[in-house]
Structure formats: C-alpha cells, structure tokens
Amino acid sequence: MATTKPVPGRFPALASEPQNKRVVRTTDSPNCTGACGWLATVVDDVIVDLKPAADYPCAEYNPRGCLRGMSMTHLIYGPDRIKSPLIRVGERGEGKWKEATWDEALDVIAEHMKRIIRDHGADHMLLFNQVVGTGYVQKGAQVRMAALLGMSFATAYDFNGDISMGFTHTVGIDCVECETKSWSYAKTAFLWSSNVFQTRIPDAKFLTQYAKQQNDCKIYCIDPRCSQTAKGADVWVPINPGTDCALALSMCQVLIDEDLVDWEFLRTFTDCATLIRSDNGQRLRASALDLGSEDEFVVWDEATNGFFKLPMDTLALPDGLRPAFRGTRRVTIDGAEVEITPVFQLLEDVISRDEYRPENVAPITDVPADAIRDMARRFATVRPSSIIIGMGLNHRLHGDLTIRAILLFSALAGAHGKPGESVSIYSGQHHFRLDVSPWWFPEGRRPKPLPMHYFVLGKPTETINPKIKYPKDGVKALFVSHGNPLVTEWSEPMKRSIDALDLFVVLDFSMSPTCEYADVVLPCPTFWEKVELVGTSCHPYLQIQNEVVRPQYNSRTEMWIVRELVRRVDPSLLPYFDCTEWDAIEAMLAGGGKEVAEITLDQLKAGPVRLDVHDPEVGCDEQFHDLKLFPPRAYPFPEGAQREFLKTGRMEFYKEEDVFAKLGEQVPVYKPAFSHLPVEDQDLPLCIVTPHSKWRVHSTHSNNPLLLNLNRKPVVEIHPIDAALRGIHDGDEVEIFNQYGSYRLWALITESIKPGVLCTDHGWWHRYLAGGFYHSVHTHQKIKPTHENYYLPAVYAPGQHWKDTRVDIRRVG
Amino acid sequence: MLIDLTRCIGCDACTLACKQENGTPMDVFFARVLNIEAGRYPNTKRVYLPMLCYHCENPACLKACPNKAIFRRPDGVVLIDQDRCRGTGACVSACPYGNVFLQDEESWYLNADESYEKDFVKPRLRSGVARKCTYCVHRVDEGLDPACVVACPTTARIFGDLDDEHSPIATYIRDERVATGREPFPLLPEAGTRPAGCYLGPMAAQASSTLGGRAAPERAEPLDSGKRSRNPGPGSKVLVSVVLALIFGLVALGRAQPIKPHVDVYSSTNCMGCHGMSAMGGLGPPIARTKLTYPEFLDVVRKGKGMMPATPATEMSDDRITQVYQELEAKPWDPSQIPIAFKVGQMLSTRNVSILFTVVTLFALVFGTKVWLYWIKLSAPRQLWPAMKRFGLFRSAGVLIRSLVIDGFLVASLWKANKVRWLMHGLMLYGFCGLLLGDVLMQIFNPTRAEMPFFSPLKLLPVLSGAAALTGLLFVMHRYRRDAYIDNGLTQGRDFLFMNLFLHTLISGFLTVTLKRAGVNDWVMPIYLYHLSAVLLLLGTAPFTRFAHVWVVPTMVAVTNLTEAIVADGKDLGYQREPGPGRHHKSQRIAVSLMSGIDPEASGPVVLRYYP
Hints:
The complex is a heterodimer. Chain A is of the alpha/beta class. In chain A, strand 20 (about 505-510), helix 19 (about 515) and strand 21 form a beta-alpha-beta unit. By secondary structure, chain B is mainly α. Chain B has three domains: about 1-205 and about 575-610, Alpha-Beta Plaits (2-Layer Sandwich); about 260-345, Cytochrome c-like domain (Cytochrome Bc1 Complex, Chain D, domain 2), CATH 1.10.760.10; about 375-555, Fumarate Reductase Cytochrome B subunit (Up-down Bundle), CATH 1.20.950. The radius of gyration of chain B is 32 Å and the shape is elongated.
C-alpha cells in the first residue's frame, strides 16, 4: 500500500484524499549499492507509497529501483523493527532483554568504553560497520568517533570477501567498474559468474534493452547454474565450479595462437614489455642500468636496440618505441650477467603450455574446445567486448588468480577503456565516489585498521602484515553497526570470539540474529529516516538521502548516538560532533576531490548530480583516457598509498614479490580450486555455491514479510541425478553437511544446475531454516600470504573463500 | 499493455510495485512473474513471464459473474467493483490465466497496530471479495501509467491505447516488427478471451555450451505429457456422433407413432378444416384428407372438435353420420380447399412438435455442453488433475458435488447474504426446474397431450412453476430497471434477450391456458404457437445468453472450491510454493503453451519455479 485513492469501482468514490499528503524525493542506500532515487508519499509521518523517482538527467537510468526498495515499507514498519534500546539480561543469545531508555543504554556502553580505554587502550574496541559506502555521513560519524578515540576499525568489504585481490594485484585497486550505462555499447559480453539480472536489477536494462535488443550483443553466461541471468544469454556455459582460471588462460592461448593480440594496448597500459631478471625474479629497475631510480623501469626498444626508461608520470609512450615482448636477452648488472625476459614472454611460456590447450582444458572446465575458441575469437573480434565478473569467481582462495587471468585475457584483446569495453566487478560500495576524509578523519586522525578476519580467528596469523596492530590484550569490545556477521558462513567461530568480549553492541533497525547475540542493541532509523549522502559505482550520480519521515519509534540516528557516546566518554571531543548531517555533507563536498569540486549542496537538494567523470565512465578513465599511471586512486586514502603494490604504474601481470614466487603465482596460473582443502573435504562429492538472490541484500530483507510471501522457504537447488542418487524428492527436507557442520532446508530439484553442484542462496536468517545455522559448513578460514604482504584497508587485504566448500547432502526423515 | 520478454529479467519489481500501490493482503498478487524452466540439463531454458489481468475484450470473469460486479469500461478496462462483489468465486475459476484472487480469510503482513496497514491499507479494501489488477485506473485516469509500468526497471512494460497509432505501445509494436521481426502475441488465444495484454518474445538464443558434465545416466521417468496438440480429441467426435444418433433415433421413434387426430391436442384445439378454405369448401376434402376411420369420424362428431360443437344422437343419428361419411369419401379431393390454418395445425401434430422440441433441446444441450466444457476448460482441469489425484479423486468428487448442490442448486451463498435475493433466485431457478420437470412428466404420462382436468398434478406443476418463475422474473426485471450495475459493458444485450424471451414464454403459456379455460378458442392456437416459438427460441439461445450462468456459475464455483480445498490440503508442492496459491495449474498450462510457441522444437519438461 498504497495509493491514497479508493479502489477503483463502478462509480467515482466519494472518499476524499488526505490533505496532508506530501511527496519527498530521496535515495536509498542499502548494501546492494544500487543507490536508486525514490519518491515517497507521506501522510501523517507514515510512508504510504513508493515510486521510482526516475529523474536522472541521463534518461537511460530511469527508472531505477527493484522489489527490495519497493518493499522497504515492510521493513520500516515490519514486525522485527527494534523499537527501543535493549539491554541483555540473560545469557548471550538467550533472548532475554530489558527495554531501556537511551540514557540507560548509552550509560552502560560508555562505562564499558571508559573502563576499556583506561585498562587496555581504545584500540581494544573494534568498530565494524556495514560497507561504509552505504553511509558516508552516518556510518562516517562512527568512523569519526573511532578515529578520534583511537579505536580499531574493521571494514566489512574485505570481511565479506568482496575485495578482489586479483584486481589489486593487476591494477592496484580492488575493483574496477564502468558505469552500467556503458554496458549498452557492448556487442560481446561475458557475464562471468555474474548474475546481474538478480543482483543489479536497475542496471540490467543496459544488457537487455540496449546491448541485446538494440545492438544484438551476444551474451555469454559462464556459470555452473543456468542462473536467472542465463535467461537473457545467447550461450550458457555451464562451467565446472572453480575452473574459470583454466578457461581464461586457455582463451588467452587462443588469442596468442591466432594472433588476435592488441599489441598497442599491451605496450601502453601493461607491464608486458618490462623485463624480469632471471637471477632474482625481480623486475629490472632503471637504477640497475644507471638509467634512473629504483622506482623506474625499462623496456627493450627494438627500434633503437636499446633500453628505454618508462616514464613515471604518464602512460604515453613515444610513437617510435617498439618494445620487445618476446625473447631473452643478457645484460650485465653489477658485474654479473643476468638474463632478462619481457613479462609477455614469461606469460606466453605459461599460457602456451599444453595444459592450457582448449582440448586439454575442455575436460577440466567441461567447456568444449570449440566453444573456448569461439568465445575467445568472438571477444577479440566483435567489439566492443565487455566482461562482468561475479563474486563466484572471487570468493575462492585462488580467485585472485582467476581474476588476474581474466584481466590478462581482456588485456590481450585490448578490451578496456572504451564504452562497452571493460572488465567490471560490482562488488560493493566501498568504492568511494569522493574523498570522505574531511568528515571521517578529522585532522588526519584515522582509526587503527584491523581486518575482521583476525578478530574471528581470535589471534593474528603468523604472516599478518606489520601495519596491522592486533590489540595486545585482544579485542574487548565490538560495535557492529548495521552488519549481520552472524548470518555469514563464518558465524560459529565468530560467536566464539564474541563470547570472549566484555561488550558487544549492535546498532540496527531490525532485530537480526546478530542483534539477538548482543549485550546492548541500539535502534537506528532505516535509510528512509535519516539524511545521508549517497554515491555508487553503478552510476555516477551523487544524491541526497532525505529524512522522509522522522526516525520512527524510539530510534536515533548514528550521528546522534555517536554524539551522545562521546559526551559520556570524552566530552572534550564534543565539538567535533557539534554539527548536522548537512554540515558533514558540505565538508565532504568541499574537500572531496575533483569529482565533486563543482557540486554544491543546493544542487544535490534539487536532485541527482552527475560527478565530474567521463561520460560514459568506462572504469580507470584517468588511465585509459588521460594516460595517467595506474592505479586509480582509492578514496579515502591519499594519493600514492597504492603505489607500493603496483610499482610500475601499469597493469601488472607479473608480480615480483617473493611471496608470489614462493607460491608460483608470479604470473596467473590455474590452481584447482579445492586443492587447498584437506583430503577428506576434497573427497566430498558436491560443491556448493551461495549466490545472492533478488530477495535480499545479503541478509537484509531476509525478514521482509512481503518478500517472504513470495520467496517462501530456503531451498537448495539440486540436479535430478544428484537427488535421485540420494533418494531426495522435490520439496524434501534435506541436510547439507560436511565435517565442519550441517544445516537443514528444503530441496528444489531443478534442471538448471550442473550435476555435482548445489546452490543455496545467501543470507537466510537461521529462523527460516529447517535447522542449523546458515551455511555453517564453511571450510576453515585460510588467508593467502599474497594477500598479506601489503595492507591498505579494503584495497589490499585478505578476502574470503566462501565458495571453496565441499559438502554432501542427505534426506532428513 | 505490451510486455517485451526480451527486456524482462523476472525481477518482480512489478509484483512489489503493485503490492505497494494496491495494498493487497498476503498471498494476493495482481502482478506476478512466472519463472519458467524448460528442457533438461544442459539444454535448460529459462523464461520469465510477467502476468497480470489482461483486461480481455471478451472477459470470462465478467461473463461468469452472477452479480454483475465485474464490468468493462468503455476504454476497455475490466474492473471488479468491490462494493458489488459478493465473493461467489465463479470468476476465479473462469479466468483462464488465474488472475482473479479471492480469499475467505485475509491475513496481513504487519503488526495490527502499525499505522501503515491499519490506517491506509485496510480501510480501502473490503474483505471477502474477488480482486484483480485494475490497470491502476486511478492512476491512468489522471494521465499516469500503472504502478508496475513506472516501476519496471527494464522498461519491459509498454502501456497505452492499441487503437491509437501514435501511442507508445502502437509505435513500439511497429518498430519492433521492423527492427527485430517480432509480432505481439496474447496468451492462450484458444480461450477466446481476446486479451488486451500481449507479449513480444525473447530474443536471446539460450544455447548451451558444455561437454555435458558427469555422464548422464538414462532417465527412466517419462517425458512430460504437458505438450499436447490443440486439435480436438476423439472425445468430442464421439459426443457429436452420439447426439446425432439420438436425434435421428428420436425422430424415427416419433414418426413411428400413429396419429390420433381426434385426441391430438395440437390439430384438435382449433381447426379440423371441416369447411375448407374461407369456410366455403364444405366438409369434404379436408376431412377426407385426414383419412379418419369411421369410428374416429364418429367420435369427432359426437364429442365435438374445435369450433364444431358436439353433436348428440338426438340431432343426428348414427345412420346419418354413416351416410355423410360415405358421401365425403366418395367426393373428389381438392387440395386447394385445405385451409392454411389446418395445414399448420396438422404439421403441429404431437409427434412433430415432440420431434422439433427434442431436436432443439438436444442442440441446446450440445451447445450447452460445449459452452460448459469451454468454461470448464478455462479452469484448466487437465492441469488440475494431478493435484486432484494427490488430493484423492473421491474427496475431489465430494467437494465438487457438495459445492454443486449447496452453492449451486441451493444457492447457499445468497441464502446467507440476502434472503430476498435468494427468494428471487429460488423462484426463477426452481420455477424453471418445475417447468422442465412438468414437461418431462407430461411426456411420460400423457405423451399425446390428451385433455386432463385442471387440478391434475401434471397440469398443476407447470402452472405453479410458471407462476413462480414469472414472479421471480418480474422481480429481476424490476431490479434491472433500478440497478445501476446492470450494464457491465459487454453482456447487457444477451441478458435482456434471455429475460425477454423467458417473459414472453411464460406470459404466452399462461395466456394459452387462460384463453382455453375461457373458451376463446380463436386465440388459443395463435397464442399457443407463439408460446411454442418462444420456448424454442429460449432453448435454442440458452447456451449463449445469461441462461448459461445456471450451469456455468455453479460449476465454476465448484471448481474454485475444489482448488481451494487442494491448496488448503497443502500436499501439492506447486501450490505450496506459488505466490497467491490456487493458480499453479493454470500457470502450468500457460507455461507449456508459451514455451511451445517460443520454441516449438524443444523437448523436455516445462517446470514452474517460484523461487529462489
């Protein structure tokens, strides 16, 4: 509901419409990061109707919105809404609460905080909030408090596993996205494990309506499931889970064999011509040849038969330069003769291996050799060609290798930097559209970064990056804001870590399973009840999220809560919070970088404003258009913070650090996905994928009564053969299990999934399952050392490997 | 509305936009999306089919509504008036698309004290009524597009006036015809509902590229038999043959009966043609033509016939009669002297009239059955069959029969709702049944329609039934005059045709009896002829007028009740999983029909997947 008009009938109704109706333009900011504009109709401070605002100046974006946004009223007014602060009176998770006043709740928290600061230090308190891209202002306020108090801060992005280290290794930033409008131009599109029809609903039209209907784009859907997106695909490629890297490398081989390589692209944008020393596996520095500094690199110019020092201020190279891509040369460095080989040669040595011949990759991937060749040819020749990567590739221990291989494939074809040509991974809204430092990091003070992994593990790993300071007495207090980490695959070990805490505070609007485990629960408004500044990587519009209705029930904004906590813990910091949301937005606009330099608050209040970026934005625009060195800047970190892990300033397909050499991963190679698992896991017959579904944003909306009315039960998709082997019938209650745990739900027998693969969609709250905890079969956490050798929160940090789990399934009862 | 299946991504934004706009209770989805999966791995194909009311030109729901709660606006929008609807449930089964929702009990999403539902949603809605998509006419009338259209993030829905060549929808269809060669198509065209909502097909090839994965063992289970040819099966041929055989048999049987003119009610009522054309021809030729045997002739003269009074022996001796008979027999026969009235009267022998009635009744029965089967078919019984089997065939039959008797014959819902209206219905229904029964009894006990005393039960039954029916009918006609809902924009002509025919039948019937009692013999024959024609017309048109709702509504209600029982039983997965339980079988038929249209070559099952 609902329109304020009577139900249309035979005769005009006499009932009149309410007089006090008002319509408010706002934006929502859930963790799908779609950032859709809405018009909300409000009567008597109740939101009675939602409609897409459809007011984007770039008409193709209209309308934006989806079923989740449309059903938001049923979370705002839903039965799980937290209506007052709650203080635990029973055991953790027992469900016994005392409804408290704000003063009581905040006093309890402040007392704990003061004690922990006094006894252990502020860094023993850890703040963990939902990806902060969803709340520059409100969640930013929490970060501001953490920064000022010196608390530890964990970013959700890497804990979710959305960080794509393959991108960081190659382009120096954890993800690259084109604005979705850019998909329209594609004539060939690979949806690689990406289910955009479910996860990027407002943007899917750029594939269906524009790419397909207008451009006759050929769409390939590479996925072990005939996903909802495969519906719009011309070819469904049901690949064996975890073998995508082999497919990518095989397609690379096809490109090289059939001479479809874009040498000009490799020359300008990649490290393919840089030279690798045989003695130490390091890149040849200009300093070694006395041609320049340690930070400069050389290529061998075949035109002059001499070294050429790559410029480190631009990607542009002189026209006459013909860098050598092949062959090994000898050079004397420090008196010793060293063999130097261009990166491309090393890549080719690997790619050309017999194991990557399409005929040999076919049985691994289950993709016919002809299809591999066709796909590679089509991608290289029918342009523009686009790749959209889904998290199924990335949520694996060796997902970084897969993504590096895909980036290599697209680089060989030169498919970057033009409308409809990019490799995008829409993995979360950590990708800031502006520099939030002026609001988050007052006077440059930052919280102490601590990846959540280490909290869950309960201790640092041996290979932990020294930049990360694990609190000496362990974490004493955890603040979770709008996150629901106890509905991840890793909930059981996390509970054990929480059990060791002195204080566990959760801020949310719905009584989530994480709230149920808290010591104090603080009710926050939904994003329809507070002011926020919203940006997204899906489209380049900056928007205001309005306070459509006052914070409902007894909820308070994060801004207010933070101010009240600071008042109690350290009143000297109060002046930092003596401001409104609008002040925070103005501060961020003023110091937010060139993309927002021209944007004023008044403009934003009037409607969505396009950032100062290329149109269409193709991803790494500054690099591909303006030939600035890689990596693109990752806000809110200062310029140059990423340089250490992308030293050449070019797309790096060769990683020179020892840690890569140790693992044999200097260049992308295929490593079987499950090879890192214990033998007993590898012997399990089924793999399981946990895709996002349209019914939820992670676990948000899991409890939305409207959506539950449609999506009635958690199911596991299973192929008829696998079901028949286990005597499972459609609709049976089944148990998914392995040595780590088990959980129960209902079987859905379907022809749309590859035999040997199970699929349960991600984010179900436990109470909807037939038993157990959602996906409590997750294999033991591993952190790859190549993800620890540098550290920059949410840019170079450990990810997750949720999809590497192997399981079996049985009928219950 | 046109929905482009190339653009649709099955996101259900429309479903929720509709919920948001119309504030429907739990399990009611005016707009919904069928998630269709066809074929076997790896040749799996997926298609999304967004569904909503198609606002048919010939809407089955509207015609099935016994209440005139469903109407069609001049602009083509079909609406259910919630103030008028009484929740009979006939429309639910009648809609072949399953787009009408009716719930006995409503449940809601939020806590009872939440203002959103308490103050804004529930007050708008009456409970216990049938509901369906309104095309958001409250928006359309203000120049806005329906909620599902403005919310569709892939702009797969194009709304407008198909007849206006400049409208977005007409332009889109024209452009797509040129650009992609696609033609719009409706769902289930064979249902004859002529939907205003249509589709453009998907463009993606959906081929599969794989080695096949693990070697697939031979699968034993048979392929789905869902795809069947649309040719009529042998059943209907057998039915037609049987009916024709019956007709010819009855005709032959009738012809084999001897004529007994002296007792023959039709040729004896008025004219024997004794006096020939213009009463000038004397007695001769016509009576000779009748070929009465002498005893019969004697009987006629003695007892009187038509306008001829009885002649007692005191006036004319038997000898004289014998003489006249012989004279008559001797006279030459002049056919030109036979009066027309006599010829007609003779054709209207009991035998011939019986045959005519039998033939018309049988045709009416055949067409009535056809109509009945059409309606039953709308409710997708074949697709319901597996669920019925799971539910238990005996149980199903029980539900059906119970519903036919209680909801149909006893019109229980009206009894509960409004005794006066029930009485009106009862008078007409049971009056008509009485007339029918009277006719049958008459045929059995007095096949030649011999004169009988007025108070004999055989005579009383039709008279009383007729009176009841007439009272009911007059009541209905009175109401028609007063009731603003009567014109539903589609069937008014047919409704009036039925009522007027029925009225004429009843009045002329009574007039015949009265005139005969009053001895106004001159008028009896014409009025009686008129009565007969009216009865024949009434029977002949029955399947096509509002008469049909006598058998259509109870059947549809019975099927609706059966479906509800099956859903409540909860054993069938399809109904458990689908949003808005109760239409799975119809969705299944639509899915199969759609897939065979999109991809006629494909084999393998067509499965509806409701989630995830």
